[in-house]
Design brief:
387 residues, alpha/beta, TIM Barrel, 2 domains, three-stranded antiparallel sheet
């Protein structure tokens, strides 16, 4: 039985599923743009979807909004403005809410970015991945290095004070020197936040079926360590496994995920997780994935592809799976606040982790050690149900 005395913070994720091209490494719910985006119909579907979710979150303030994809910057600023206006009419959106839009350099003209800013987007996340034209070609990206630089410069010119750049390392035939060059170029563009993560071969992607020649583990580790050092020298603190930020510029939406906060998910294939104090339960939902089917079903209960309750053991594992990714760990009190469970449900694996030197644990904080961060998978496996 859960025992929520208060509810976690609430975010909103909105999925815009279209892309100009499907990248060979991508396993997200994205679909090729074969014609014009049905903007008006899709925004109407998003609002209809949200309206049906409202009874579950009535009166709860929304702290963050993240518009992801796909390539959300393919949408017109007018459509984003219409969407945000209707969100504000339906939800108690905090005045200082973080509102992020994902953008790709090949679909982010400077004038468009300024209009997104005017519509209410206050954080931009640009999918750069690399500043090497050959590596971009191997990744199936539609933009060039020059366009990636221009997109970051245009984001500054448009007045964005919160800018994230996505970078990947461990790319096909990449050397540590090339990976470090990407990080150095990213730093020169003065983003407030960097996401830096290793290319992995996900199932059901073209790369999984036709693997490219990737750097070996030792080279990939060298890329990680050298990039981590360069970012630290430049004032970007690593606060999560793949997230680096200047002081005061961490991504609040992602922090809410990592600290097991609640979030609504609207749009094709969007996932949500909600806690309920009245019924003392946690529910996960997922919407139908294909945009065409979503457009047809958004006004009905058939928009739900999945709906299930989270069990006590599962909730404890899910919390640790996310929170132990954070370099500084988390306050002990947050576990009960965000899961509705006593810490005792994970006390045994916590003791094992501490004995193995993977965490430090006191009355205030639980934090992964440097060893725990290095062997994160081993740490998380201790919390698997039945482990």
């Amino acid at each position: 039985m859960f025992n929520f005395t208060a509810l976690p913070p609430l975010g909103l994720y909105i999925h815009l599923p279209w892309c100009i091209r499907k990248c060979p490494y991508c396993d997200f719910n994205s679909h090729l743009l074969r014609d014009e985006i049905p903007e008006h119909a899709y925004v109407a579907a998003l609002i209809a979807d949200l309206e049906q979710e409202l009874p579950e979150v009535w009166g709860r303030p929304v702290d963050t909004v993240f518009i992801g994809g796909g390539t959300p910057s393919l949408f017109s600023p007018e459509a984003i403005d219409r969407l945000l206006s209707q969100l504000r009419a339906l939800l108690p959106l905090n005045a200082q809410a973080e509102i992020t839009l994902e953008a790709n350099p090949g679909a982010s003209e400077a004038v468009k970015l300024a209009e997104f800013r005017a519509a209410g987007i206050n954080r931009l996340s640009i999918g750069v991945q690399s500043f090497d034209d050959e590596k971009l070609r191997r990744l199936g990206r539609i933009h060039s290095a020059r366009e990636a630089i221009a997109a970051a410069e245009a984001a500054h010119a448009a007045g964005f004070e919160e800018i994230n750049l996505d970078l990947m390392y461990g790319l096909p035939e990449q050397t540590p020197e090339q990976a470090l060059g990407d990080v150095t170029q990213a730093i020169a563009l003065a983003p407030t936040h960097l996401s830096h993560y290793q290319l992995t071969l996900e199932p059901n992607t073209r790369f999984a079926h036709q693997p490219p020649p990737l750097p070996d583990d030792d080279s990939a580790w060298a890329m990680h360590e050298q990039s981590q050092s360069r970012l630290a020298e430049a004032g970007y603190a690593q606060y999560e496994v793949s997230a680096y930020a200047r002081a005061g510029h961490r991504c609040r939406h992602n922090l809410n995920y990592w600290l097991y906060g609640d979030y609504l998910g609207i749009g094709a294939g969007a996932h949500g997780k909600l806690s309920n104090a009245q019924h003392q339960q946690i529910t996960r939902r997922a919407k139908v994935k294909h945009p065409r089917e979503y457009l047809q079903k958004a006004t009905t209960s058939q928009r739900l592809a999945e709906q299930r309750r989270v069990g006590r053991t599962e909730a404890g594992f899910e919390f640790m799976l996310n929170a132990l990714r954070l370099s500084e760990g988390f306050p002990v009190s947050l576990f009960a606040q965000h899961t509705g469970l006593p810490l005792a449900v994970v006390e045994q694996p916590l003791q094992q982790a501490e004995a193995q030197g993977l965490i430090t644990w006191d009355i205030n904080t639980i934090c992964p050690t440097p060893r725990g961060r290095t062997y994160l998978n081993n740490l998380l496996q201790l919390f698997l149900p039945g482990a």
